[in-house]
Amino acid sequence: MPGLINYLSDAKSLLALGSEELGMILLGLCRKERGRNVTLSNYEMSVLNVGPPAFPHHMRITVARAIGEAWQWLLNEGLIMAAPDQPNGWFCVTRKGAELEATDLDAYRHGSILSVGLLHPRLMQKVRPMFIRGEYAIAVIQSFKEVEVAVRKATGLGDGLTGLTLMREAFHPQSGRLTIQGSIVPEREAASALFAGAMGHCRNPTVHRDIELDRVTAAQLITFASYLLTEVDSRAKARAAAES
């Protein structure tokens, strides 16, 4: 039976994942059993038996709870169930779990291409689980939606402004509420073009058309959205300081 240790080599990388992400990895491992029943303890032991330094003894309970949370998420989502032909403690993949698009487990052998360290917290919570499930276009759309929501919140501009129009207003070189007025004009114009271009080039095609995105392209676009969110946070903080 393949174990978590084949995909998450230390406690830090395992604990960096949310319950949904870790649950999807567990589901992939269960599916590799091709219909055979599984137990949670087998997956727990595959990492807990490794021991230090990858899995220090003082982190055993934390790691076990994280795996347990992910397992409970699978149960709550109806992706696995108690095996009807076995005593308590044995589980099997449901039809829903078998039909769900498979997680690309091989990506975890070399580290996820969508680096946790590069993601804005808003994208970690909402977008990365979509990416892990292979929902690349949806993950990209949600990423740039988060940028739009952040800009609207930081500027107080109404819901009537969206996409390119919102960005051009928020980053207008002369009057934009997120424009750094102390910077030179070409830099102000470039910031406006950057955010408006992100909406037009990165977000809009996936919103208005059925576009197949590969894993690498999606990761690049999501990371770019993460940078834009960080920039919005910085400019909003500077604006608040200037007005206080």
Q: What is this structure, in a nutshell?
A:
The protein is mostly helical. The protein has 12 helices and 2 strands; from the N terminus they run ααααββαααααααα.
Characterization of this structure:
With 244 residues, the protein is mainly α. The chain has two domains: 4-105, Arc Repressor Mutant, subunit A, CATH 1.10.10; 121-243. The protein is 59% helix and 2% strand. It has a two-stranded antiparallel sheet with strand order 1-2. A hairpin with an 8-residue loop joins β1 and β2 (91-93). Mean pLDDT is 87; it is low at 107-111.
Written as H for each helix and E for each strand, in order along the chain, the element string is HHHHEEHHHHHHHH
Please count the beta strands (DSSP E, at least 2 residues each): 2
Overall shape: elongated
Number of domains: 2
- Major sheet: arrangement of strands: 1-2
Through-space gap between termini: 60 Å
User: Rg from C-alpha positions?
Assistant: 22 Å
- Counted by DSSP, the helix tally is 12
